[in-house]
Amino acid sequence: MNKIGKTIADLRKANNMTQSEVADILGVSYQAVSKWERDESLPDIALLPQIADLYHISIDQLLRGSFEMKEEEVEQAKEIVEEATQDEPYETEKFDPGRFSEDLTSYINKELNDAFASAFENLAPFMKPKKIHKVLNRRKIKLGSFSRNAYEYFDSDTISDMIDSIGNVDEKVFDQLLELLPICNSESKDKILDLIIESDMTRLDISEMLPFLNKVQINRLLESYLEKEDRQKTLENMEEFLPFINHEGKKLVIDFLTEGKLNEFDLEEYLPFFNSEEKSRIVSWITSQKEETDLDEIIPFLNSVQRRELLRWAIETMEYDEISDYGHYMEEDMIEELVKRYIEEKREDDLSDFYAFMNTETKNALIRYYLSRKMNDELMELLSFMK
Question: Do 30 and 23 touch, CB atoms closer than 8 A?
């Protein structure tokens, strides 16, 4: 049901109707229609058949938000727009640069545009979407002239023109684009994405865009972000992408992570978002490192095969006191191997953390070793674990 508002708005605009016209037909106020389109409320269930009949669709299409214009309807819409834009634009009074300074001219033009934008927002509920596009196209009014409430009256052509009029994207323009994103179609979102990628995106909080982009668009944004941002800041912010990216995006993340060192980031923050194949790649990378790492925070996210590979690497490369916390993750044969190596190397490290996980055969081998080395304290403690 969360798509019904946008569906109702798309249907109305495609049929070139105002909110007031829709409201009159359905017997409600245009404010009610406005609230539906903004997903602030839902139509009464008794109105759903009337809404579906109005736009010649099924109730199922209405509820699922599956509205798509037919090919002939797209062509007809294009003809209407083309016909509307063939009219000669009306002339507005121009200021003589010889009589007014450039700053004053700019100020007056801004005041005129602001006054127009304010009046437009009051009239927009009563204007057809094609008429809105025609008027705004003539006036060359830019995106920042309106409040976000005005955007619900813009059709896809108006939104596209607004985006085309944008130059450089700074923090202020970025905030305006964020307000526009929820009602943009995929093509307009691509345009916005192009603008962001071409800008100094390192100054923008691009994570706010992610809920409104598809997976391909997010991957494009992520790839550009990884190229532009310095590594430390990227590591601080990259977790924002993880809930939204697909396999290709995660591959980009893993490529980026494995270019550095383990101690740069908290790997346990990333692992919950990776699938088995991606985790295996991470494990292979870890086992190729020579630096120490806290496996206890990583192991819970691994399957048995990945866990075994990581623990075998730990047994071969770490000191006994470093791996003592991992005994409860080890299988019996791994602990048997660890004790065998311990005896062969004639070690005297404290193995008490592993006693509870040893089988009888391994304990007996260690008892014999303790007796031969006269390690009486260790022997007495181990015997306490014998049944």
Answer: yes
Listed residue (76, 38, 70) closest to 55, CA to CA: 70
CA distance 383 to 355: 10
* The token pair that represents 160 in the structure block: 């596209």
Contact 184, 177 (CB under 8 A): no
Instruction: Spell out the long-range contacts of 255-260 with Cβ–Cβ below 8 A and sequence spacing 24 or more.
Output: 256/226, 257/282, 257/285, 258/282, 258/285, 260/231
Number of helices (H), then strands (E), belonging to the chain: the values are 20, 0
Place of tokens 């000669």: 88
pLDDT-wise least confident of 20-29, 139-148, 377-386: 139-148
* DSSP one-letter code for 241: T
Domain locations along the chain: 4-68
Q: Which CATH superfamily is domain 4-68 in?
A: lambda repressor-like DNA-binding domains (1.10.260.40)
Burial degree of 250 (CB within 10 A; 0-12, 13-18, 19+):
buried
Mean per-residue pLDDT for 230-256?
A: 89
> How do residues 55-76 score in pLDDT, each as one tens digit?
888 776 776 664 444 555 445 4
Q: Tell me the DSSP string of 280-308.
A: HHHHHHHHT--S---GGGTGGGS-HHHHH
Please give the torsion angle defined by the CA atoms of residues 196, 198, 201 and 203, in that order, rounded to the nearest 10 degrees. Answer: -110
* Other beta carbons within 10 Å of 254: 17
CA dihedral in degrees (64, 66, 67, 73; nearest 10)? Answer: -150
